[in-house]
Amino acid sequence: HGFPIVSISWRRQIPLFLDLGFRVICPDCIGYGRSIRSLFYVFLVSHLFTVCVPHHGITTEWAELETVVQKMPSLAYQLQFVSGAVEEYATNRERTKQVLTALFHGQSPTGEYGTSLEGLKFDVLPSLKRSDVIEEEELEFYTDQFTQSGFTGGLNYYRSNRQNFEDDQTLLKDRSGDSKIYCPTLFIWPSFDIIITKEMAQAMALFVPDFTLREISGGTHWVMWERPTEVNQILKEWISERSYMSSRITCIEPFLAQCISSEKIPSQVVAIKLKMGFSEANDNCWRIDVLPGTISAEQ
């Protein structure tokens, strides 16, 4: 998840994965909710599919945020996010709720939004009313979460660009300069997202060879909540097309296959190398630790 949401934002998608037979782990990112909230934290991003979070590739030359914003004006709000202005405003529960109401498309009685491409409109925030994007119960939950944690942990993700750039250079070196992501990737783009333009979404194909773009017409940045049925249908179709079914296991050593089929799992940890719809050229495999009654996986 991204800012300013937590793991509960996936609650309309989790049942889909459970119905498909998957086990689901949906944590709060570090700095959010009840997680660790260090003043600075280097973070890693894992990906399978993404909604409104594009990948722009890895650059070899550092660019300050001001320079990035000149090229991509829709990211101007990040200048406010890194400045500390949001934390300076949200000093109590009432103001925290105002910030969240604005970010979730709240409007004033005159129809004015509390946000623009430049960030939050602090003078408008006290007059905002909750939009239909989020239910009152959910808004109260988010308010409780961020009143407890504050916004600093989440906003620090925007402040870690320099560290991310330096980490990327190490990654490029380890990969002999190859900056592409070969994991099959689905990007769901809502056409009314004012931050992520269609051109930005389409440009991901330059950095992700096996890239699928799906559009939801009329959806906004919070399309996961607004149009959960359509989002889930896209996810289901993409998973099905890729044969990412939880029960699909191929290329297993015969002995282990026999153990699994007969439900006689050895007591010791067993490492299984399997393929799930990937080609030999870009072989992405998973290491599966099989214990009696449990299966866990790590890439």
TrEMBL record:
Protein name, please? AB hydrolase-1 domain-containing protein
Similarity comment text for this entry: Belongs to the AB hydrolase superfamily. Epoxide hydrolase family.
Q: Per UniProt, which keywords does this protein have?
A: Hydrolase
Q: Which GO terms describe its biological process?
A: antibiotic biosynthetic process; monocarboxylic acid biosynthetic process
Molecular function in Gene Ontology: hydrolase activity
Hydrolase: is it a keyword of this entry?
yes
In which organism is this protein found? Answer: Penicillium fimorum
Q: Which InterPro entries match?
A: AB_hydrolase_fold (IPR029058), Epox_hydrolase-like (IPR000639)
